[in-house]
């Protein structure tokens, strides 16, 4: 066993600095200690990266048109998008509180069907792009029954809360040094092509969170179900961000999975260009000093660094950074 693990580290060292290779690239350096701590100067940089995901404060919501179902405010619309919805008066109506679904649409099934027809029209017109053929539940909080199922590509247009799962896949060597598996997204992805991402991540649709982690792990990284099922639920992060479509407000459930040193993920579904095994030092430097990471992944990586002791309470800015990872509503 020891020889095999040592061989794995020799392979890692040989691949450091090599050109990208799809599927099995392991570009990494070795950290010098088990508890590598982020330089204090980097905390300010990390904070700026988190702040870039929290660009809509509570007072900024007044500049958007509320989206309501049954008297409940569930989202926020740009005025230009609200005006397009208003053209479909049998589905959307303008009221004093904002844009609401027509009162005749009384069930989740009927709402989903009628709103879906309008979304198809807006996609045909080019208002909605990147059609996913994937329905996301629209609800006040995670454990509520959905009031509507909405095409994923339209979620940010409606500014409704969306959920996802992100899994940190990490490795410890015999000395306790940690490494993190990093994915580079395919250049053909409709969103954030070519950017750095987690080993496993996905939108949270209509199945359980753990079931979603196991499914995505197998589909995206070739992680066997029996191994993926060992992932631990370790918390959540949240943010509210201004995007071209309108408002993106997400809650990301966070999972950790410690992987064997000799396990190498495989790109399975075409969504990942390559997987890379990076030292914590390289991860911290990349997050702090580059724009390579998919924005919301930054929050999950920083959460990992805090929980694993690479950012600690004696560093100035620690509490501000910790609090800002959960700045938006966590319901």
Automatic annotation (TrEMBL):
Listed InterPro entries: DUF4743, NUDIX_hydrolase-like_dom_sf, NUDIX_hydrolase_dom
Matches recorded under PROSITE patterns: NUDIX (PS51462)
Biological source species: Picocystis salinarum
Function recorded in the entry: Probably mediates the hydrolysis of some nucleoside diphosphate derivatives.
Name the UniProt record assigns to this protein: Nudix hydrolase domain-containing protein
Gene3D superfamilies referenced in this protein's UniProt entry, alphabetically: Nucleoside Triphosphate Pyrophosphohydrolase
One Gene Ontology MF term: 8-oxo-dGDP phosphatase activity
Ranges of residues in domain Nudix hydrolase: 162-303
Phylogenetic lineage: Eukaryota, Viridiplantae, Chlorophyta, Picocystophyceae, Picocystales
